[in-house]
Amino acid sequence: MSNSSGLRFRRWRLGAVSSAAITTCLIASPASAQLPATQAQEQSGAAAATAADTVITTASPQDTVADPEAGAAQDIIVTGSRITTGGYTAPTPTTVIDASAIAANAQPNIFTTIAQLPSLQGSTGTATNTFSTSSGQQGLSSFSLRGVGAIRTLTLLDGQRVVGANVTGVPDISLFPQLLVKRVDVVNGGASASYGSDAVGGVVNFITDTRYQGVKGNVQGGITNYGDNEQVLVQLAAGTSFFEDRVHVVASTEYAREEGIGGGEFGIGLAGGRDWFRQSTLINRNVLNDGSPQYLFRDFAQPYNYTKFGLITAGPLQGTAFDQAGNPFQFQYGSNGTPARDAAGSVTGCFPGFCLGGDLSGNVDAGRSLQSRIQRVNSYGRIGFDWAPDNEIYFTGNIGQVKTRNQPVGGQNRPNLTIQCANPFVPALVQAACATAGITNFQYGTSNAALGNTQVHTDRRQYRFVAGAKGRQSVAGSDWTYDMYYEHGTNYSDIDVSNILLSNRFNQAINATTLNGAIVCANPVARAGGCQPLNIFGGNPSQQALDYIMPANGPYQRTRQTQDVISVNFSGSPFSLWAGPVSFAFGAEFRHEYYRVRADPYGAGIENTPNNAAYPFDPLLLPGGNNWYAGNYKNGQGAYSVKEAFVETNIPLLDSDGAGRANINGAVRVTDYSTSGTVWAWKVGGTWDLPIDGFRIRGVTSRDVRAPNLSELFAAPVTTTLPNFFDPFRNVNVLAIQNTIGNTNLTPEIARNSTAGIAFSDSKWLPGLSVSVDYYRIKIKDVISSLGAGDIVNLCFRNILPAGCSAFNLNNTNGPNFINVQAFNLASIDTEGFDIEASYRWQRPLGLPGNFTVRALATNIRKFVTDTGLPGTIPNDTAGVNTGSTPDWKWLAQQSYSNDDFSLLVQERWFSDGVLGNQYVECGAGNCPASTTTRPTIDQNFMPGAFYLDIGGSYNVTKEITAYFKVDNLLDRDPAKSPFFVNPALYDVYGRIYRAGVRFNF
What we know:
The chain is mainly beta. Among the domains are: 11-213, TonB-dependent receptor, plug domain (Ferric Hydroxamate Uptake Protein, Chain A, domain 1), CATH 2.170.130; 294-367 and 413-450, no CATH class. The protein has 10 helices and 50 strands. The chain has a 22-stranded antiparallel beta barrel. The chain has a 4-stranded mixed sheet with strand order 6-8-9-7. A 3-stranded antiparallel sheet has the order 2-5-4, with no helix packed on it. The longest helix has 10 residues, at 428-437. It is globular and about 100 Å long.
């Protein structure tokens, strides 16, 4: 049994198909194309050397609809085009990862294997969104091609849409039937004309084995070098056929669990003893023209407006801190800082807001989860019936669940509290100091470590069912394929937040007094409502107080999202021209998307929640909601419908030895959105196989669209707490609430997508070598984007966006401070770069049995410019910004050897050095120009790249059983320091991971 290791990035060339190139097919479509059965045999001998052709991608023929032994045809699934006739060559670069590559990478989730491709930038996963409370995207595996976002990448399962796992509309890859996936096609280019909305960055299409026969399984375990993130994966699949091979049944089930990483304790100690965290911070000196940089990038930054168990932050007693027992002591400021003891809370010798070093025990960032805990369970089944030769009806069902848990941060930071000196919880020494200083209250900050850490739990459940028919029929003397299906999907997303405080109850509980010899809440209305006094000096609050401020029934959100799709596609070649058959594809689709969300009354508002029996009325709370410290979910619902039709054609232009072979491909699609009207998408491209052996030129340009999703149109307001939001009007940090709301006036984004490239593959004089270089450019206008809360406030402060001044109130005496954030068709994105791919396959290296393969893929991002569209702002180029997801260079390389007994794999992942931001001017003290908003000065504008080495291998115990291992990040490379804690979109935050398992196939 030959067991190939490594990713098979196969780019195939189809010209005149011969028996020596029997598996070379093209990118295919959901509509069925069929090749003679002789082309479905296993490629061997000299033909095997073409498996790394870097021109067009595909894997072997798919989805037999009739008995291959009877000489029937087979379907070819071609991603990126609806044309399915044999001999069509697509102009769009596509990368294919087959089942053996997925297995060799030995990941607990197929998503991780695909996301390693250099053209995928900014994909989400278990290590992203762990710092949030309210997004609901924790552990959501979704792809982002070209860095333009997961919402602009269309992900398909067998060429069909999948219901979103979040109101943004992106599906969760971890809910797919992973063991039955036999290949994944990644189309690096716009495909809206062929597939509809969202395919701006490209398409990722998972192709399942619908005709699998036998029983196979996989059992895998893993653990990190730090003894955490324990992993277990159990997969089982089976397939059979009966009734004279006319009924085909496949099924799979899967259980996976990853324990996650973190969070750690307060200070700088991360989970598992990871020592790379340094509390790096970008400090704003707020001085623009003194010859020194405005921004300083520093390690061990200590915020001086709170500590772990409390700190008096201003006035005569500034610098008095409290230990866990509540005893006062003099706080140790870093940078040899000395409290100024003024009303502003300044610290002499420190930077604004921060000192360096000193007592770092109160820092909260170390409490963040580095990876969400995740548990996956899914099952899949498909039954197909060949009602006639080359014609099938089928039904599929996919039911899955993903549950996650993460800790966004340590504690529940409250930096700006006012405490009365007469509060009976204030230690006697401090009360005496108040009397001596002649004050009755003081400013106080605490990370509230005594309250424990907030936990976010998500539960996503997907129910997806498809009924369809596909096949081939002869019409007017020519064969036409058809593919039609109806899909209904429902996704339930539950979010529950535990151990989080109700802000107004907290405010009342800390305001204590003595009544009849007992310590009680000072407000009689609060007392009548059950208020229990809270001692926030130290770490020993009473359980009664904790139960009052953090009730067991915390914030929650319940979302139901549905998707219904009816799709009909036809493809055929009704006539021929001088160079070959002219192919056509046409079809139509109807899609309806709907969602409804319900939240708890304390977050959404009591009057907006029909069932609030579990939440008794409390006059201290705001009836309109926003009562939680974080996780203030809202109610909402919305729906939209899409009607569309398309036509696509492929016209051969040349087919001769002297001129080569060339074709032109074009498509047009008209789409009507119920919310925004009609929009057109189109593409035109072609390929030319030069008469020079092995060379091909290809190119395509397209107009692509992305319609606003349910979240952007109808978002229930998502509320996020901003505990240290800077108010430039008063020059102070405040506690504010960010409300993200929808906008039903949004229109589709319009993109212009172009690629052009040249490829060399498998020539007669250099067999086994393939090299391709493709240039791409994507320009998107009317981009749906929201300004950040800080941008809205700052642009108002600078009088650049006066209209935004009504969107916030940071000195609200009638309720919490807030900033409303809403999406608009404001921005544009302009990105361009190169894809480079190369591979070489050496059979029987140095006379040894087996194959040695070297492959490499690289993406260079020349620019990634985002323009907010606002007056007074300049476009921001984030190419090479390593705090984001678009480094200048990113590559993946593999070297693998395999024979009938064992396989070995070495893999390198690398991305280039970068910067914190291209807008910064790096300079040193004494030689800095004046710092401006668009060109601020900074002392260090550098973030290093990273190199990760992975190794793996397998051993065939028997013909049916294979044992394997994999070690990721073999060198245990730490992530680079970042002013934003860490960037898991680029850097490995886990450390070295060991995995091992056993596969069987009977």
